[in-house]
Structure formats: structure tokens, C-alpha cells
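If you are new to this repository, start here. Below is one unmodified record pulled from the training split, so you can see the exact layout before writing a loader.
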Amino acid sequence: MSTTIETSLKNKIRDSVEIPVLTRCCFCFPLRKGLIAFAYINLILTVVVTSFLSFYISYIRNASESDQAALALEYARLIADVVALIVEVIMTVAFIVALHRKHVLLMKVYLYFEIVYSIFGFIYSLAFLTKETASELFLVLFQLMLQIYLVILIWSSIVKMKRDGSVKYSRETNVA
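And here is the target side for that same chain:
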């Protein structure tokens, strides 16, 4: 009984929600090449931010004891940020490999990671919003919209790869 209710609910959601399938990245680049460019830019920026945060953590550790006491609460948050960024670097490398090899399963793994990472990142950003300034809130919302757009692009690429991979044309040669 519960299986049919769960299946019917899943089918109702699937029938009522329609995710668009995009053919271009940023309305001008081919989908796969645009995702590859995005992945490399994301990898570079994430490595740069991770290195800057690592330098800042080492600065805090080498600071005087009075400064360390003042920055103790920030230290734990910075460690969590660096760990999250390292996980993002690993997943971005997997995404780049998936794009180059046209590996659908790895792309699905990255898609689910991106969805979960975006939700946690949005909640984390809202939790540590220092002052309710418009610029900080705007950046958090802009980042969320960019990640939603990325998820739609990845979904479109997966749909396209499945569609292109399942239909193969072969030339039959009749030797008479």
C-alpha cells in the first residue's frame, strides 16, 4: 500500500514539475564546452580561495595569544570552510573528468553533490550573515541563483548525453 502511494506521489511530482532542457551555456556557448569552461574557472577560483584561507589560518595560528583568543571562534569556522572547499575541489575535478569522458554517472554524482552543497551553502551563508546589509544578502542570493542555473545546465547535459548515447546510427553495408 505504501509503495503505491509513494510511487504515485513521485509520479505526480514528476508530471507536475518540468525542468527545462537548455542547449546553450550562457545563451552563447555550446552546452558541454560552456560547462567545461565553468568547471575550470570554478576549480581555479576554489583553489585560490582555499589557499588564501589556509594562509589566513596559519596567520591566526602564528599570532599572539591575545589575538588568538579574539579569533578563536573564527578559527573553527575557517577550518570548516577549508574542508568544504577541499571537498569542492575534489568534486570539481571529478566533474571535469566526467565532462571530458562524457561519463553520465559521474555527472549525476556531481549533480546531486551540487544540489546538496548549494542547499547547505545557502543555509550556512544565512546563518553567518554578519550584518544584514543589502550587499551581503545580494551576494548570497546571486550565488544561489548561479548554482540553480548550473544545476539546470548539468541536468540538460545529462539528458543530452543520454539521448545522444542511446540513439546510434550505423551504416549497413550489403555485399551482394
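Two things worth knowing about this chain: The chain is about 80% helix and 0% strand. The CA atoms of residues 53 and 81 lie 8 Å apart.
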